[in-house]
Amino acid sequence: MFGLKPEVIKLFTPFFQYADGRLMFQYGNEVVESWAPEWHHVPSTSEFWLANADHPNLISDLYISYSAAELLCFISQRAFLLKFPEQLAFAAVGLLPSTAQVEALKSTFPLARWHLIFDANLVGRIADAAIATWFKGRSVSFQIMNEQVKITYCNKPFMVDCEVFSLSRFERLTGLRAGMRTHKPLRGLSSFIELQFANYDT
Predict the structure, then answer these.
(1) For burial by CB atoms within 10 Å, which of 31, 35, 108, 191 has the most?
(2) Strand, helix or coil at 174?
(3) What is the pLDDT of residues 66-103, one digit of tens each?
């Protein structure tokens, strides 16, 4: 199925539906992400998709992305992480992550280390910084101006070149320490979905 590893399909099968050549992921009661090799619809929603979260107090690592499909592709490329699958949970927050989603996940998984699986492009890197800031209960906004990112963090302004912006650079500038890890695909690709299909003949 889309070149995904068998152990990945086995782990995630309870958390998606397959119909008409597409995988569908439920966010809350009504909102759906739909994914196939030639089609990907990701919702903007206040809900989120969760997988493997039946025992949240046992979860040591929480993997978060904008997309459930991105998480499946990531873990298929990193299947060695499934040595202890009962300790892992996965959450997709849609195209516009929010403070409320971050607060809900933080409350649900109090012992988990957070891993951020957002695109390697500038939008994904800004999402990393926003989520890390909200996790620490602080305020932030971003504007892109003349190849620079203008950051307003706790009412203080910062500027950084777009091409070097990252969560690490953001933390050095602002002094934030969220303790989160970001994961980006190799080979100059933007997403793990791109990497998945680069290795899979549709």
Answers:
(1) 191
(2) helix
(3) 999 999 999 999 989 999 999 999 999 999 999 999 99
